[in-house]
Design goal:
- This protein starts with a strand and ends in a 5-residue tail after the last helix.
- The strands form 5 sheets. Strands 15-12-14-13-17-18 form a 6-stranded antiparallel β-sheet, sandwiched between helices. The chain has a 5-stranded antiparallel β-sheet with strand order 5-6-11-7-8. The chain has a 4-stranded mixed β-sheet with strand order 1-2-4-3, sandwiched between helices.
- A hairpin with a 7-residue loop joins strand 5 and strand 6.
- It is α+β, with helices and mostly antiparallel strands.
- The structure holds flavin-adenine dinucleotide.
- Flavin-adenine dinucleotide (FAD) binds next to strand 3, helix 4 and strand 11.
């Protein structure tokens, strides 16, 4: 196994895309699961996993050893066909495979993992599984947790084992084992049985959640199985390191049509969402007036990154939007409901039916009849974060209220309260609001000058206010990006003391010496947020 203490490598591993910087002692690059196990057995410090390092929460940052997978453990090992009663196919992958390469391998068989995140060109499978990522197609297809079948893992004593769905008799056999694995099965099963009501009551009420340990996912009552891989998913490398995953895949639909709604009056938002969702959009996304104005302002820069022909075509396509800005008619939100079907006629039919369902609301709407027509909306939606980051010098993209979720039925009350809060800080940060409107999942990533102490104060002051509001409306602090350094301290507020005690007990049984990614999920403090924030831009 290669080990590096080279300053440039350490510096790179000290950052992800969060607000934080933590210098590690060394970086280990294992070639296989046996080397991972050796490292765990011999460690005198902590071990924190890193795949592509695009995490926004500080998840892959820590002070001990960083175990990095993209150098060697970067192969899709197999793409397998459908199994009766299961997914359309399966992939066996290592954690260091970039999603873009993973998708090439699965698309060669006409299949995809539909929970891919917006960072699909940058991130790797290690983070997709360990953050329980979701993205634009999660509305229809769910998050990564749904596609986890099996995980080969290294436990905190170096044991190599595979977590997968076990029948009651297979579980009983695991529970009699006289080792750490047996102890984990005994204690987790007992915890789930004794606290079944408490755990069920704390199952998130929103359709996306990446916060906490997913104790509610382990038992499948319909199939009568017990699968610890479902707990490792989303646990940010705090319980075990995974070395090989079997993931379910689906056959994507071929054709798409989009209903675009230009919304001036937020009061109508819950009605729109409740009327559009029954038509089954594959994705239902949104971006706000700030994003829209920035996109028009930076249109030349955005177009210059594309080839000439595409830029020329998109430039013309954007003309009506530019006119909207010039004439002051910018909508408060732009909503994009995309319908996917096997034929273009079916997709158009659905988009038109959804449009008709909104006819009496007096809205400006538009149908984009194919993917070429809807491309410009996707570019603004996908590129808004990058646009901000690249074009405003001295300002730093600061994810700290970047990923909360509220039930869509609460938009009328929630959004004005949120806007009131954000308005109080508008002279201290530039921000855009984009999100998965169908799931109630919002991304707000302000741009701030973090060399100013008052900017850090905003992070410490505004985040608790936003999360308090989110929790008041029955939401969760993170739908996709996970807890990391930035949100671990809010878990007690979100789940309460009894569930926190179960999370702590879970961590203790898997990792009694606290070697895996300490300070994430349990044990993280508000002092960590202040201390680990980057010092300068
Ligand atoms: C522009 C942008 C857009 C984004 N959009 C989305 C989005 O739409 N949805 C979304 O979910 N996220 C999004 N993210 C966040 C991030 O890109 C994703 O969560 C991504 O899946 C992380 O993958 P990664 O390979 O970079 O993981 P890393 O950052 O390397 O790691 C993420 C976490 O996984 C753990 N980990 C990695 N490998 C292993 C392993 N083998 N065993 C145990 N633990 C492991 C790490 O310790 C860390 O806690 C976005 C980020 C950016 C910069």
């Amino acid at each position: 196994m290669d080990i590096s203490t080279d300053q440039a490598d350490l510096l790179k591993a000290s950052r992800d895309t969060s607000l934080f910087q933590v210098m590690p002692q060394e970086i280990a690059y294992p070639k296989n699961v046996e080397e991972m196990s050796e490292l765990v057995k011999s460690t005198k410090t902590s071990i924190t996993a890193r795949a592509a390092g695009t995490d926004m929460s500080g998840g892959p940052l820590n002070s001990g050893t960083i175990i990095s997978f993209t150098k060697y453990m970067n192969k899709v090992l197999e793409v397998l066909p459908a199994q009766a009663g299961g997914f359309d196919g399966y992939a066996i992958t290592e954690p260091g495979v970039f999603y873009r390469d993973f998708e090439k391998a699965t698309l060669a068989k006409g299949l995809i993992l539909p929970s891919y995140p917006a960072s699909r060109e940058l991130c790797a499978m290690g983070g997709i599984v360990s953050n329980n990522s979701g993205g634009e197609r999660t509305l229809e297809y769910g998050k990564t947790e749904k596609y986890i079948e099996e995980l080969e893992v290294v436990l905190s004593d170096g044991t190599i084992t595979t977590f997968k769905a076990l029948s009651p008799s297979e579980l009983a056999m695991k529970k009699v084992k006289n080792d750490l694995e047996g102890e984990i099965y005994r204690q987790v099963d007992e915890m789930l049985t004794e606290n079944a009501t408490l755990i069920e009551a704390h199952r998130p009420k929103v359709s996306k959640n990446s916060a906490g340990y997913y104790l509610w996912n382990i038992k499948d009552p319909e199939k009568n199985t017990f699968n610890l891989a479902k707990l490792i998913c989303g646990s940010q490398g705090t319980l075990a390191l995974w070395s090989k995953a079997k993931l379910g895949l689906v056959k994507p639909k071929e054709h798409r049509a989009m209903l675009v709604v230009f919304l001036h009056d937020l009061e109508k938002l819950p009605t729109i969402v409740s009327r559009v969702l029954p038509f089954g959009p594959e994705s239902f996304e949104s971006y706000d007036d700030h994003t829209f104005e920035l996109a028009v302002r930076f249109l030349p820069q955005m177009l210059s990154q594309m080839g000439f022909a595409k830029a020329a075509r998109l430039g013309i396509d954007f003309l009506p939007e530019a006119e909207l800005v010039l004439t002051g008619g910018v909508p408060k939100l732009i909503l994009m409901a995309e319908f996917a079907e096997d034929t273009i006629e079916e997709a158009d039919k659905k988009a038109l039916a959804a449009q008709a369902a909104l006819a009496d609301l007096g809205l400006k709407t538009k149908i984009e009849k194919n993917e070429r027509e809807s491309e410009k909306y996707w570019i603004v939606r996908r590129e808004s974060f990058a646009l901000l980051r690249k074009n405003l010098r001295g300002m730093y993209a600061s994810p700290f209220i970047d990923d909360f979720v509220v039930p869509p039925s609460t938009y009328t009350q929630f959004l004005p309260e949120l806007n009131k809060l954000l308005d109080q800080y508008k002279d201290k940060m530039i921000y855009t609001v984009a999100g998965h409107i169908g799931n109630g999942n919002f991304h707000i990533i302000p741009l701030m000058d973090l060399s100013k102490p008052e900017s850090k104060q905003v992070v410490l002051e505004l985040a608790p206010k936003v999360y308090e509001l989110v929790i008041k409306y029955g939401g969760t602090t993170t739908g996709e990006h996970n807890d990391g350094i930035i949100r671990t301290p809010y878990l007690p507020m979100l789940f309460g003391p009894q569930m926190m005690a179960l999370f702590e007990a879970t961590k203790k049984v898997f990792d009694p010496k606290n070697i895996f990614n300490p300070g994430k999920k349990v044990g993280g403090t508000f002092a960590d947020i202040s201390a680990k924030m980057v010092a300068t831009n």
